[in-house]
Structures are given as structure tokens and as C-alpha cells.
Amino acid sequence: MLDERRVEMLLAIATAGSFARAAAALSFTPSAVSQQMAMLERDAGAMLFERNPRGVRLTPAGMALVRHAEAVRDHLLDARAEINAIAEAAGGRLAFGSFPTGTSAIGAPAIAKFHSEHPDVDLRLTDGEPHESVARLRARELDVALVFGLDSWPAAMDYDGKLVAREGEIELEPLFDDPFLLLLPAGHRLAESHDEVKLVELAEERIIGNPVGCAPWGMDLEHVCELAGVELMFQAVYRSADFQAQQALVA
Predict the structure, then answer these.
(1) Cα separation values, 95 from 85, 140, 142, Å
(2) What residues does 124 pair with on adjacent strands?
(3) Which residues pair with residue 51 across a beta bridge?
(4) Cβ-contact 209, 239 below 8 angstroms
(5) CA distances from 184 to 89, 161, 190, 192 (A)
(6) Rounded to whole angstroms, what are the CA distances from 246 to 78, 151, 171, 172, 207?
(7) To pair with 2 at 20 to 30 A between CA atoms, which of 21, 98, 117, 127?
(8) Phi/psi zone of residue 168: left (φ > 0), alpha (ψ -120 to 50 degrees), beta?
(9) DSSP run (H or E) holding 235
């Protein structure tokens, strides 16, 4: 790895045309600049300068390093400008991740509100499951994401039970707790009787999916039932993690 400060000094020399003028601009002595450039050449493994009485001239290796260093500097300046623009809501881009039901419930209205308040910011939505959004956050492909997690299934765990991010790699901010909703066919006795159904009332009902086939919701439901001392009849022949498919099967 090349020392960042020495690379910055190299750019100053390329602009000034000599060690002495670069040293004056950087408030260093010429000898200090010369020593630092000798170390940079050692680190780079190549001669970067052709020295002459009038100053120094960059070698092809030196010009290549300057070109890359200027590109890095420009990228960092662009990044700083974009970050400042986002912080001031005056421009830039914001990458937002969500999942289908989360987008329809609160993500889409949030996007509309954001656009109305910050019209100069280019907001981009990427749809995916919670663990996919977490992986994209970890890879810096997303800036913020709407995800969900369950007591037995964190947002960073994929549907094979593998964690896509370690603790501390992402920051979770709780928004609210979402209750379990029971999906019943039209005209079902439990749907007609009252608004809230006790778990014990489901003991004689066939439940679509099973703890493995409809993970993670089935596993969490089974855990809640175990705490309540209720055993449900999961139907292993119907397995789906998609809400629309589940609704069609129930109907």
C-alpha cells in the first residue's frame, strides 16, 4: 500500500514542477520532500522522477501514479460533495431497499413524502427480501432499507438459516411491532364470530404450510403456540412463503 500523504505530496510536485516549490506550498523543507519521495519510490518499486538542475520530471511510472492519484482524489471530492448534498437535501442520490408488502404499506408513501420534501435527491428503490437488503447494505449498495425481523428469525438471516451480516456491520432502528394476522376463508366460523381469535381455537384447524416450508413465519408461529401450550395441525402439502399464494390457497 502507498502512503496517502506521500501520494498527496507527489501531486503537489507534479503541479509545482520541483521539490523546492512543492515544499514551499506544503510548508515543508526541500530535504523533507526529497526524503518522502525516495520512500515513495521505494514503496512503488519504480523510479518516479528524473532529477535535473532545473527541477524534476516525472518518469512514465511517475505519470501513471499521478494519473491514478488524481482520479482517486477526484472520486473522494465527488463523494464528499454528494454526501454534503444528501445531508443538506440539495441533491445527490439515495439508495433505498424494501420488500413488497413493506413497500405497499409504508415504503411507497414514504417515497412520495421524501420526493415532495427533497425533489433534488435522486431516490432509487431496490426490491428484495430482508436478508437481501441487509446484504446490500453491508456491501454499500444501499444507504437505507426497510426490513422485518422475527423473534426466531433476524433480518440478517436468509431463508436457508445463514447470516449475511455479523453483529455491528449494520445498524437496526426499530419502527414498530407488527401483529400476527389470521387468514381465513370467507364465511369461516371464526371469521364471523369475533375480531380476535385465541390460539387454542385453532387447535382443530388445518394450517397451511409447516414450520420449515413456510419459514420464517411458520417457525415463529409454532414458537408462539409452544409457549401457549397449543399444537397446530400444519399441512405439509401446501408450502409457500408468498402472501398472495397463501391467500389463494386459503380461499
Answers:
(1) 14, 9, 5
(2) 95
(3) 56
(4) yes
(5) 45, 29, 8, 10
(6) 47, 22, 32, 29, 11
(7) 21
(8) left
(9) strand 233-235
Cα 171 to Cα 89: distance, rounded to the nearest angstrom: 22
* Strand 144-145 versus strand 206-208 pairing type: unpaired
Determine phi and psi for 206, rounding to 5 degrees.
-85, 125
Each residue's pLDDT, cut to its tens digit, for the chain (251 residues) gives 678 788 888 988 888 888 888 898 888 998 999 999 999 999 889 999 988 777 788 999 999 999 888 888 878 777 877 777 777 666 678 899 999 889 999 999 999 999 999 888 889 999 999 999 999 998 888 989 999 988 778 899 887 788 888 788 889 999 999 887 888 898 888 887 677 888 888 888 888 765 555 556 777 777 888 888 988 887 777 777 677 888 898 89
Beta strands in 85-232 (DSSP E): 93-98, 122-127, 144-145, 206-208
> How is residue 90 annotated by DSSP?
S
User: Cα 144–141–116 angle (5° rounding)?
Assistant: 45
Q: What share of the chain is helix, strand, coil (3-state, %, to 5)?
A: 50, 15, 40
Beta bridge partners of 17: none
